[in-house]
């Protein structure tokens, strides 16, 4: 009498990794979206007040210049004009150009911006009724608004892709596996399932193949760190030089969350790199390339490397 086919249902480890990877991906894209939304809200609030709440007045230009900010990677410039105007029955002295106070390369462009303003001339200006010394000569919408919109688009599109990605096999794949299993049931009774080998073993018959690479994970973290910290550093630099006006402290406090995320990515990269360099290859060999229920077999585990390990867990997972 032939034994009846036995079915073993084991949860694949890859399923857990996919689920955790999907959650981490959604969290990262959510943070990217929040970064863009926070910057957009902060900048839009200032521009809204300038266009809708600032009071109009006539001012007299008393001086003008191009302010140079020197850094390790070169100099950046911004236009600045000194002017006086009447507000609430008082003569107010102010300096500025527009509400952005952003600094960028290209001195010639800044000189062209202040060229129309002649010392002693009278021009339109707008001032904050709550703080009249905060005044502007130019009201404009900056191209820098593209940055938060791009970040928000990346967050939405990336999150949509992560949520859209199926966490399990498709119905077609399930049907195909069911049909394939029916055809292999008789063969499995005779020989047992075939172990996914990486080649012929040196001590035992079969060396199991390895999935994934520690160096690949480190490279992925490096690319993510360069992308994330590159974007965040631009805003941190602008906040440090006062490019966001009087609310730069608020921007720095807001950006500290994303700086912390960037530091965690850097830590993850060096930790993974240390694992890749210090922990050698894990070699697993088994005594047979076909396994059957109830049949004994031998297994050999070799862990190379120069680091001391506190623990090593080996799980042999069979999939039918």
Structure keywords:
alpha+beta, 320 residues, five-stranded antiparallel β-sheet, four-stranded antiparallel β-sheet, 9 strands, 6 helices
Per DSSP, the total helix count is: 6
| CATH class term of the domain at 41-147 | Mainly Beta
CATH architecture of the domain at 41-147: Beta Barrel
Per CATH, what is the topology of the domain at 41-147?
OB fold (Dihydrolipoamide Acetyltransferase, E2P)
Distance between the termini: 24 Å
Mean pLDDT reading:
76
> Beta-strand level of the residues, as a percent range?
15-25%
What is the N-to-C order of secondary-structure elements (H for helix, E for strand)?
A: HEEEHEEHHEEHHEE
Give me the count of strands: 9
What is the overall silhouette? Answer: elongated
Q: Helix coverage percent of residues? A: 40-55%
> Strand order of the main beta sheet, please?
3-2-1-4-5
Class based on secondary structure composition and strand pairing: alpha+beta
Nearest-angstrom radius of gyration?
32 Å
**Spans of at least 5 consecutive residues with low confidence:** 1-18
Would you give an account of this structure?
The strands form two sheets. This protein has a five-stranded antiparallel beta sheet with strand order 3-2-1-4-5. It has a four-stranded antiparallel beta sheet with strand order 6-7-8-9. A hairpin with a 2-residue loop joins strand 4 (122-128) and strand 5. Helix 1 packs antiparallel against helix 6 (248-278). It is elongated and about 100 Å long. The chain has helices at 13-52, 107-114, 146-164, 171-191, 214-240, 248-278; strands at residues 55-71, 74-87, 90-96, 122-128, 131-136, 197-200, 206-208, 279-286, 299-305. It has a domain at 41-147: OB fold (Dihydrolipoamide Acetyltransferase, E2P). With 320 residues, the protein is of the alpha+beta class. Mean pLDDT is 76; it is low at 1-18. The protein is built from six helices and nine strands. The longest helix has 40 residues, at 13-52.
């Amino acid at each position: 009498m032939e034994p009846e086919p036995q079915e073993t249902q084991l949860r694949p480890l890859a399923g857990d990794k996919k689920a955790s990877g999907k959650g981490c991906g959604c969290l990262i894209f959510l943070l990217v979206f929040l970064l863009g939304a926070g910057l957009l809200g902060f900048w839009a609030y200032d521009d809204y007040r300038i266009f809708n709440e600032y009071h109009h007045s006539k001012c007299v230009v008393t001086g003008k210049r191009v302010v140079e900010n020197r850094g390790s990677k070169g100099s950046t410039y911004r236009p600045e004009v000194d002017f006086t105007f009447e507000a609430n029955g008082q003569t107010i002295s102010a300096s500025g150009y527009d509400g952005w106070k952003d600094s960028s390369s290209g001195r010639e462009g800044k000189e062209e911006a202040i060229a129309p303003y002649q010392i002693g001339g009278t021009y339109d200006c707008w001032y904050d009724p709550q703080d009249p010394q905060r005044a502007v000569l130019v009201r404009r919408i900056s191209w820098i608004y593209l940055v938060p919109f791009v970040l928000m688009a990346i967050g939405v599109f990336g999150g949509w892709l992560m949520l859209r990605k199926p966490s399990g096999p498709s119905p077609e794949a399930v049907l195909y596996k069911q049909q394939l299993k029916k055809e292999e049931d008789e063969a499995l009774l005779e020989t047992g399932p075939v172990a996914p080998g990486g080649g012929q073993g040196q001590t035992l018959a079969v060396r199991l193949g390895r999935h994934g690479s520690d160096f690949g994970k480190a490279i992925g973290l490096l690319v993510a760190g360069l992308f994330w910290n590159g974007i965040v550093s631009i805003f941190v630099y602008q906040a440090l030089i006062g490019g966001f006006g009087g609310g730069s402290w608020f921007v720095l406090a807001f950006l500290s969350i994303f700086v912390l995320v960037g530091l965690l990515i850097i830590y993850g990269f060096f930790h993974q790199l240390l694992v890749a360099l210090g922990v050698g290859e894990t070699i697993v060999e088994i005594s047979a390339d076909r396994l059957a229920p109830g049949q004994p077999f031998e297994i050999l585990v070799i862990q190379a490397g120069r680091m001391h390990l506190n623990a090593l867990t080996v799980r042999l997972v069979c999939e039918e």
